[in-house]
């Protein structure tokens, strides 16, 4: 029997700022029982020492029969979403999701935009605030956000800045907590989201949706761990859906993603602008977007988890990036 190690950070209500991206206990429990129903043994660990000890302790001859589901988000480090993929690759153990280079790049919104823009992906111009003293190069109104956070951490309606006075009042506090910051023109149009499943050479774009929310911005208060507060509208015009499907496939191929990603866009005057990529999206059946996009295609949550695990094992078998780890355990 194959074994799934759910490597996770579990959301801590006493420290919501640092753990905003982490999954809830209920989500982990539901994932565990669903994966068990698929015929796997499941081990759940949420401590770095326990995870690394467990992985290094797997008999070398049996490592191909284990897979690590990467739900580690960490905090503060620009490498935090790459911990598990790098470790698994090094030890010769399958894992879900993309490799460490994809995880590290996509966590940096500014670098991702520059990279994809160089291949013709349409995105708004942006400016990185590294020191807090840079002169603003983008005209007001602007939108400012943490460059390396997800789950709308550090975002509120106050991040829309319309004047120099607002800049001077709001940016220092935000910079002190979340530097570096990314500045973009404020785009008031609707947000869209797309998810791509698959490994390179065989990608599938899930149904595309508008993301509506009861505020000017998709802020951290909307990202509830108990319910899905935003709403998804799948009534996307065919011309826009086709364009997003093509762009999302292009992005997946350019990044070389594996397993799954979610991509966010903004629509303004019928122009679509790429916003960011999430290579470690949430998998909660309660509050995460990707499972809802999957289920819109007519497939169950259990089928989503099954597919994600199969893609991880497939990636391990065919990708040369695992060869060094495999050679160490011969």
TrEMBL record:
Molecular function (GO) terms listed?
ligase activity
Concerning its family, UniProt says: Belongs to the D-alanine--D-alanine ligase family.
The record ties this protein, via PROSITE patterns, to: ATP_GRASP
InterPro entries, from UniProt? Answer: ATP-grasp, ATP_grasp_subdomain_1, Dala_Dala_lig_C
Residue intervals of the ATP-grasp domain: 113-310
Q: Which domain of life is it from?
A: Bacteria
Organism taxonomic ancestry: Bacteria, Pseudomonadati, Spirochaetota, Spirochaetia, Leptospirales
Keywords tagged on the record: ATP-binding, Ligase, Nucleotide-binding
Q: Which organism is it from?
A: Leptospira bouyouniensis
Protein name per Swiss-Prot or TrEMBL = D-alanine--D-alanine ligase
């Amino acid at each position: 029997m194959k074994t799934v190690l759910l490597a996770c950070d579990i959301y801590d209500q006493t420290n919501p700022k640092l753990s905003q991206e982490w999954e809830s206990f209920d989500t982990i429990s539901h994932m565990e029982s669903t994966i068990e129903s698929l015929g796997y043994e499941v081990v759940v660990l949420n401590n770095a020492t326990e995870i690394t000890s467990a992985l290094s302790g797997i008999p070398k001859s049996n490592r191909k029969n284990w897979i690590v589901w990467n739900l580690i988000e960490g905090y503060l480090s620009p490498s935090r979403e790459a911990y598990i993929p790098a470790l698994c690759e090094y030890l010769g153990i399958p894992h879900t999701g993309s490799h460490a280079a994809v995880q590290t790049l996509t966590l940096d919104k500014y670098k991702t935009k520059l990279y994809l823009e160089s291949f013709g992906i349409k995105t708004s111009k942006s400016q990185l605030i590294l020191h807090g003293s840079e002169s603003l190069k983008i005209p007001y109104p602007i939108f400012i956000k943490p460059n390396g956070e997800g789950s709308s951490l550090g975002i509120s309606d106050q991040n829309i800045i319309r004047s120099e006075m607002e800049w001077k009042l709001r940016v220092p506090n935000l910079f002190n907590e979340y530097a570096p910051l990314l500045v973009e023109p404020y785009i008031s149009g609707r947000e869209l989201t797309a998810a791509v499943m698959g490994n390179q050479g065989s990608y599938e774009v899930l149904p595309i949706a508008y993301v509506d929310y009861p505020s000017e911005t998709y802020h951290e208060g909307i990202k509830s761990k108990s319910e899905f507060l935003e709403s998804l509208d799948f009534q996307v015009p065919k011309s826009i859906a086709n364009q997003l499907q093509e762009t999302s496939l292009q992005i997946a191929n350019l990044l070389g993603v594996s397993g799954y990603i979610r991509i966010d866009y903004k629509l303004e005057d019928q122009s679509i602008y790429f916003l960011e990529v999430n290579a470690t999206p949430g998998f909660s059946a309660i509050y995460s977007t990707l499972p809802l996009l999957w289920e819109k295609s007519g497939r169950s949550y259990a089928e989503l988890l099954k597919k994600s695990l199969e893609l991880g094992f497939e990636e391990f078998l065919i990708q040369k990036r695992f060869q060094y780890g495999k050679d160490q355990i011969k």
